[in-house]
Automatic annotation (TrEMBL):
Protein name: Class I SAM-dependent methyltransferase
A biological process term (GO) from this entry: methylation
Matching Pfam families: Methyltransf_25
Alphabetized GO MF terms: methyltransferase activity
Keywords attached to this entry: Methyltransferase, Transferase
Segments forming domain Methyltransferase: 55-149
Source species, domain of life: Bacteria
């Protein structure tokens, strides 16, 4: 596979993150085990009543959102490139006596590992930046959706990824539609900034135009594209907490979050 070495570097980094993230306040695993949902307002509102729905969760890390969806009555399958992440997801699934399914594979190879079709395909917060090209990603999503089913993504806004956060203050360094990969090497992770682990990561920027066009060309009808000032996560420098408990730029110069819902066209 093209970019294999870059994917392998990312996989090893994510494997190293799993144990650190499982102990972090960011993921709050103890309260999660006691029933706290890991889902945020954006995705809860957009997904609606999912009881009885069959959901494919792409790039699920160690499965908290997958299992939160399962707790709401859905039948869920989570996919992730990290074998350590999937190992912990399966352990949590068993410990919590839930019935989710987890598959370890590169998200672009999902259709090679899963033949089932789903009512909903879902992905969220920091996922598409690990992919060099969204066309095969969108094609896979269309393949895995039932006719009339929908795809939903809530993701950090591409403008936020134009900055280099390894320096302080952050500097706008990367192109909005940059095609070349971005390599970063830094100490710590977004969930545990004081960790001594070295994160080595390859990423790619994707514009909103690329997201929308890729999904549309794969046969999905765009129901909405929303952009939001407020992020549920305090992962960028200089954010302030608003009255709703979300995080915003003080000057609100650009949005931090976007969400897209797209429906697979019926064959009728």
């Amino acid at each position: 596979m093209e970019h294999f070495e870059k994917f392998e570097t990312n996989r090893k980094t994510w494997n190293s993150k799993v144990a650190i993230h499982a102990e972090s306040d960011f993921y709050d695993l103890d309260n999660f085990k006691n029933g706290k949902s890991s889902l945020n307002k954006y995705e809860v509102d957009a997904l609606g009543n999912i009881a009885g729905k069959n959901i494919l969760h792409l790039q699920c890390h160690f499965g908290q959102d997958t299992l939160s969806l399962q707790r709401l009555g859905a039948k869920c399958t989570g996919v992730d490139i990290s074998d350590e992440g999937i190992k912990l997801a399966k352990q949590l699934n068993s410990e919590l006596k839930l019935d989710a399914n987890f598959v370890c594979c590169n998200v672009l190879n999902t259709s090679e590992n899963i033949s089932e079709k789903f009512d909903i395909v879902f992905t969220s917060y920091g996922t598409i930046g690990w992919l060099p090209d969204l066309k095969p990603w969108a094609k896979m999503i269309s393949e895995r959706l039932k006719p009339g089913g929908f795809f939903y993504i809530v993701e950090f806004h591409p403008i936020a990824w134009m900055f280099d956060y390894t320096v302080s203050p952050p500097v706008m360094k990367y192109g909005y539609q940059q095609k070349k990969f971005i390599y970063e090497e830094y100490e710590g992770t977004y969930a545990e900034k004081n960790s001594k682990m070295i994160s080595k990561e390859y990423g790619w920027n994707h514009s909103l135009g690329e997201v929308i066009t890729s999904l549309s060309e794969a046969g999905l009808h765009i129901e909405f594209l929303n952009e939001h000032d407020a992020s549920p996560y305090d992962v960028f420098p200089g954010l302030i907490k608003n009255r709703g408990g979300m995080y915003e730029l003080q000057n609100k110069l650009y949005p931090l979050i976007f969400e897209v819902k797209a429906i697979k066209k019926s064959t009728n």
